[in-house]
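Researcher: Quick test of sequence recovery. Tokens follow.
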């Protein structure tokens, strides 16, 4: 939902969305990104990420997944090409000495605006873990370009290096799927209320195979989306970029109104908003 929660800037017809990208990046960093923490933790625990890990994070966004790996002792490199606003926030998180002279140093982190090829460093050992944590399988076409991104990253990794891909689970186990129908309907009224396409079990395997990777296990993780109130829920979901095409096709007020209505069934008596979701991850290996 790189996602972001799927890939952040999906192609769409019409003018560019009338949105404040800096504000959206802050909302992603402060509200939405943490929803995928169980996914990051599951992958890192399974792969025993620690001081010996040299991690390459594709579509690193504002850097929370990298920060979690660094806290385990890993050396991390993040690549982000679609959102300079999110990358700027990642720099504040992972490279605080560049912003605050009183900040502690010692985090082994690099952040790159560009492609995986730009992250290659001939003076260091190859990466021994690659992650692509932006979940796919929510909208048709949301995996476009991911196989090429993974292929570009492979030369920087050692032989047999694990690669982690993430995807949405079945719609019947993802409450957020019903809310995302607002984005599809407003952006393309002619499609009616078809909403997000149904995630296929082999979506991740297909991407891995196109990138020349060998599937090597998978798992499912509960990632509920929980918000303090309705305003936080709306801001968090808007920050994914999934509603930008709807904003461009209609206007911000209309999207806010219909998104709030779609979230109403998930609002609890104390005012919080809670949507259970299940995400899937695939472990693959480089050739």
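Model:
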């Amino acid at each position: 939902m790189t996602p972001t929660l799927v890939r952040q800037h999906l192609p769409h017809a019409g003018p560019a969305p009338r949105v404040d990208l800096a504000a959206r990046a802050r909302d992603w960093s402060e509200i939405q990104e943490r929803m995928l923490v169980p996914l990051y933790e599951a992958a890192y625990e399974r792969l025993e990420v620690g001081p010996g890990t040299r991690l390459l994070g594709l579509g690193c966004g504002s850097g929370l997944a990298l920060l979690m790996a660094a806290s385990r002792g890993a050396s991390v490199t993040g690549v982000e090409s679609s959102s300079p606003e999110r990358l700027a926030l990642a720099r504040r998180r992972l490279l605080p000495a560049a912003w605050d002279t009183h900040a502690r140093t010692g985090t082994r982190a690099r952040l790159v605006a560009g492609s995986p090829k730009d992250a290659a460093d001939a003076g260091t050992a190859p990466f021994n873990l690659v992650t692509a944590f932006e979940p796919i399988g929510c909208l048709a076409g949301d995996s476009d370009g991911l196989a090429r991104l993974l292929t570009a990253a492979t030369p920087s990794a050692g032989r047999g290096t694990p690669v982690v891909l993430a995807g949405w689970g079945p719609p019947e186990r993802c409450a957020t799927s019903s809310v995302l129908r607002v984005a599809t309907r407003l952006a393309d009224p002619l499609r009616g209320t078809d909403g997000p396409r149904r995630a296929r079990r082999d979506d991740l395997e297909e991407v891995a195979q196109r990138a020349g990777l060998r599937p090597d296990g998978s798992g499912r993780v509960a990632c509920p989306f929980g918000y303090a109130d309705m305003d936080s829920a709306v801001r968090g979901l808007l920050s994914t970029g999934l509603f930008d095409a709807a904003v461009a096709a209609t206007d911000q007020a209309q999207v806010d109104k219909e998104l709030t209505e779609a979230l109403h069934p998930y609002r609890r008596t104390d005012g919080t908003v809670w949507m259970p979701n299940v995400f899937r991850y695939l472990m693959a290996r480089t050739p």
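Strands lie at 54-58, 75-80, 109-113, 129-136, 162-168, 214-222, 225-227, 273-275, 278-285.
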